[in-house]
Amino acid sequence: MYIDRQAIEQMEHLYRVAFINSLSGFKSANLLGTVDNQRRTNLSIVSSCVHIGAHPPLLAMVIRPHSVDRHSLENLLETGEYTLNHVSDDIFRQAHQTSARYPKDTSEFGATGLTELWQEGFKAPYVQEASIRLGLQFREHHHLEINKTEFIIGEIMQVWVPDDCVGADGLVDIEKAGTVALSGLDRYHRSEQLARLSYAKPDRPLEDI
Questions:
Q1: φ, ψ for residue 112 (rounded to 5)?
Q2: pLDDT tens by residue, 114-147
Q3: What is the Cα–Cα distance from 31 to 130, expressed in whole angstroms?
């Protein structure tokens, strides 16, 4: 099947959304936890988190156009802090439900049965049921004129991860932690490691490590 740009444009809207959203392959599934200055919490699933750099430790995410209320975006810009919580195989249904459009005064935590977890000195709520939890401080906000989305960069300030999921070399075993992947808008997957390979060099064959 060959599809050119004109054919993409002629697709029915929902078909095109599903098709294009699945082309990038597996994506991370995280719950974005925020709170406003009135202590109203918000929780929303995001699938666009990307590693920016390790020093300083930076993660970015794309938030859909601010043409309607985006409570998560408004909250993190207001308070300067937010959390990212890995979606695992035991909470993916509740996580998906957070994509529903709840009113500002309804917390997705309560609506989906997930639990707010607060850490002293940090403004935003974590998800207690998540195995891996990250606390971030807002660093940069870029409006992407090409499609009106918002690009948010945050610095990792806190990390909560099970002791037995961190290797001697620092690699986090997200599979052991139960983290799931997302494809398209609504398909959730468990992963299976194929191999871990040695550092690639032009004069040396790859090795399994």
A1: -110, 0
A2: 999 999 999 999 999 999 999 999 999 999 999 9
A3: 9
CA triple 157-160-161, angle to 5 deg:
135
How many angstroms separate the Cα of 157 from the Cα of each of 2, 44, 57, 79? 45, 20, 8, 15
The domains found in the chain, sorted by start residue, are: 28-189 (2.30.110.10)
Report the C-alpha gap between 74 and 80 in whole angstroms: 10
Taking a C-beta distance cutoff of 8 angstroms, is the pair 85, 134 a contact? yes
C-alpha dist (Å) from residue 5 to 11, 20, 21, 71, 144: 10, 12, 15, 34, 21
Beta strand pairing status for 181-183 and 187-189? Answer: antiparallel
Task: Show the tokens assigned to 24.
Answer: 């990038």
Q: In angstroms, rounded to a whole number, what is the distance separating the alpha carbons of residues 10 and 1?
A: 16
- Give strand ranges (E) for the chain: 27-28, 30-35, 41-46, 50-54, 57-63, 81-86, 116-117, 126-127, 133-144, 149-160, 181-183, 187-189
